[in-house]
Amino acid sequence: MSSTTARHHGTTPSAPSPSAQVTTMARRPRAAATAREVTRKFLAGLRPPVDAGAADAVVLVVCELVTNSVRHAAGSSFSLRLAVCGDALAVGVTDASSDPPVGRVPDVDGDTGGFGWPMVQRLAIATSVCLTDQGKTVHALIPCRRRAR
């Protein structure tokens, strides 16, 4: 089960382009796939549209942050925030864990991972972790080339 709140920017009578969206999802194994679908739909609604390579980078970052939340956080749900921020897209994943992502040496011979957080940091212009009394939000700002129509 998920819930979505969208904010619209500008006034286009036919099809307004949302500038921000927050989706709350259950913390379960399928959450990363659901988050990818939510993100693709959000990106598809942007005008002007996002360059395909930039859209792929946003989806990859969302998938990694959500996967980390599902694997490492407590609680029954998390939220995904997507927002247009000039020529970039801000991604935020909020969960009940106060433990920030930790960079570690990637495991090239096994299946323990270690590739995700460095990948997010390479794809993002900036990353941050904001701790709260209820957990944390991991933010990533991804450059988004937008094509004029």
Annotate the secondary structure layout.
Elements: E1 2-8, E2 18-26, H1 31-44, H2 52-72, E3 77-85, E4 88-95, H3 116-123, E5 126-132, E6 135-143
Antiparallel strand pairs: 1-2, 2-3, 3-4, 4-6, 5-6
Structural notes for this entry:
- With 149 residues, this protein is an alpha+beta fold.
- The protein is 29% helix and 33% strand.
- The chain has a 6-stranded antiparallel beta sheet, with helices on one face.
- Helix 1 packs antiparallel against helix 2 and helix 2 runs antiparallel to helix 3.
- The protein is globular, with a radius of gyration of 15 Å.
State the helical fraction.
Answer: 25-40%
What would you report as the Rg, rounded to the nearest angstrom? Answer: 15 Å
How would a crystallographer describe the biggest sheet?
6 strands, antiparallel
How far apart the termini lie comes to 35 Å
The count of DSSP E runs of length 2 or more, i.e. the number of strands, is 6
- Tell me the strand percentage band: 25-35%
Helix-strand topology string: EEHHEEHEE
Poorly predicted regions are: 6-16
Give the averaged pLDDT, no decimals: 85
How many helices? 3
Q: Structural class, please?
A: alpha+beta
Shape label: globular
Q: Order of strands in the sheet with the most strands?
A: 1-2-3-4-6-5
